Amino acid sequence: MTISLPGSKAGRTSGRCAPSSEYRPGDGSRTSLVADDDEDSPGGVLDLSPEARRRRAASFRGRIENEVLRKAGPGTRVFMVAKRVWAGVYHDGFVHAGNFAYMALLSLFPFFIAAAAIVTIIGEQGQREASIDAILVALPRAVGSAIGPVARDVVAAREGWLLWLGGAVGLWTASSLIETIRDILHRSYGTVAARAFWQYRIDSIGLIFGAVVLLLLALGAQVAMTAVEHFVYAFFPALDEVVGGLAFTRLISGVILFGAILVLFRTLTPRQYQGSPYPKWPGALLIAVWWTFLIEVLPFVLGRFFSYDLTYGSLAGVMIALFFFWLVGFGVVVGAALNAALAVVPEEGAIDAGTGESEQ
Length: 360
Fold this sequence. Notes:
By secondary structure, the chain is mostly helical. It has one domain (85-343). It has 13 helices and 2 strands. α6 crosses α7 (197-235) and α7 (197-235) packs antiparallel against α9. The radius of gyration is 30 Å and the shape is globular. The two termini are 57 Å apart.
């Protein structure tokens, strides 16, 4: 035991309870007994006294922190939207992403068959191969190289009545992916199905037809952009590098992808939230940007950090496709959660305006 006399500096101390600061009578400030570069954090303990807060608010860093807290801190709309998105993604995101990846891989080849049957009706026979290429443009190279040859063989093996039978089955199977997206949106908005199962299926099959028509429009746009590129190369050779750097094909694919996702969201969102007061474009834009980012980055990541061939052998291409669709599905969940988080119901609007009462 160590006994300290009054006024002495020696006393019983330990590493756990040694004081980190002392009070100076007269000036109302604290000084650190431990050398520290931050005068507002003596001894590693944040000083929240009025004087420390005044110094912090007067500093450049303090002004930035205050501005961030004012616009995105607790209680602000940005903070509340982020909190809602996080809650939705945390509870349902990973499960729905896995379901989306499975259904995407299961529905992809039936969609190729259904698209070939529809193209045979409203298009030309030669556009069947081109429609496959248009879809592969929206996939990473590793995924496209694994899916492309199989898709061409599957479509080429069906002619006549076999093509129509495969197209009918393909429409039903491909519509399952649409229903998966519908379920994601219903869960994001906290609603339940209000119509019969077969009615939703008919709507989904109609969306498949619309997707094929949009695909044909994309083919036409690609042909038009190719003609524009050749025109620029022929008459404006100085713009050769500029045009090449713009990647017109990727740009057109991104715009069409955004439009397709926006149509899906406007169609599949629960009926009571389909009106204009509830925005759909933020989630669609987020998914389109995320999808395009994956197309550009995923090949680099797989080539540098992963060796799927050593683990999955000949199934490496399938596993890469499954991984890509899982990432896309996760983006769909985040986009749906973002739209749901931005939705302000009339009751909330009345509370914000001070004309309503909050409900617990």
